[in-house]
Every structure is written in C-alpha cells, then in structure tokens.
Amino acid sequence: MRVLHRCPTDRTGAVIGDVVRVLGETGAVRGGVVVGPGLQQSVEELLDLRTVVLCRLLQQSFDAFDEAAAARLGVNRTDLRALDVVLGAGPVTAGELTAALRLSPAATTTVIDRLERSGLVARTRDSTNRRRVLVEATTAARAAEREIYRPVGEAGLHALARYDRAQLEAILDFLTTARRLQQEHAERVAAGPLLIP
C-alpha cells in the first residue's frame, strides 16, 4: 500500500485524506477528480484537490446560509434571490428582475406578488415616467437585511484584514474568475437537455 501525505485533521483534511487514499489505491472517481492507479500524488496535486473540496464545501455553506435566511424571512429560495436583486440593485422594473432571475414574466409577477404580500417589496411608480412600475425594498426588508447579512459582512471584513494587498488582489482575482465560471456553466447547464426524463 502506498503511503500518501498526511492531511490536516479538520473536516476538510479528513475528506481530502479519504479521497486521496481511495484515489491512490483504486483509481476511482471522487469529488469530480479522476486519478489513475499508480499516479504519484504531488504536493501541488494535493493542494489542487484541497481547493476543489473547499470550494464545494464553501458552496454548500452558502446554500445553508441562504436556506436559513429564507426560513427566517418566511420565503422560498426563489423569492430570496429576487429580494437580493432588489436590495442590491435598488428599485428595478419587473423586466429587469425577470432577466436577473432568468424566469418567465409570469413567474416573476408571482414572485413579486408573494414578496409584496410578505411586506418585503412594494410596487411604486417611477417619478420620471409614471407608466413605469418599479419594485423596491421596504423598510422591513432593509431591517431584515441588516439583521441577517450585516453580521456576516462585518465578520468577513474582519477576516480579510489579516491579508496584505497582494493577497487581497489574488483573492479578488479568484472570486472574479470563479463568478465568471459559475455564470458560464449555469448557462451551459440551463441550455442542455433534460437529463432525467
């Protein structure tokens, strides 16, 4: 049996250690990575694997946070996405919200109706074009945003304070690249055929 590098003992390290052991011994596929039998595990390969696993765990933590936020607000995940767009972009038209959410106009109207009934958004007339209806966040939505999202934002800024400028630039580059890749592959998946008829 081949002896591989010992990974850290936290959850991520344990996951990577198990994956590397199985991959090295069987050449199986784990965590979206294929390693053939007999392939030597370099430090760089282990770091690449750790990055893949950490990105997956990070995505799961985002999903768990969004699920908890939706539950606190009494809305579903689609409605939470819509509210996030409205909170982030300011007053938006239904058409802009439709494009951002990639929903049909009818589905977007249903989302807006639910959020309006929940007291989280309001429909208002554009002051410069009275025929144009805007969707804007209510005072209650802004208060909920402060309660739910401000603490994690402040904690994130505190955590980033330990990095120097060059490290922050590398983090920003990674985040920009990761966002672009996610968008590209979301479009790829959305355009594909139904996998399970």
From TrEMBL:
An annotated GO BP: response to stress
Q: Which UniProt keywords apply?
A: DNA-binding
Molecular function via GO: DNA binding; DNA-binding transcription factor activity
PROSITE patterns linked: HTH_MARR_2
Q: Name one Pfam family in it.
A: MarR_2
Domain called HTH marR-type: residue spans:
51-180
- Name the domain of life: Bacteria
PANTHER family under this entry? Answer: TRANSCRIPTIONAL REGULATOR, MARR FAMILY (PTHR33164), TRANSCRIPTIONAL REGULATORY PROTEIN (PTHR33164:SF106)
Name by which UniProt lists this protein: DNA-binding transcriptional regulator, MarR family
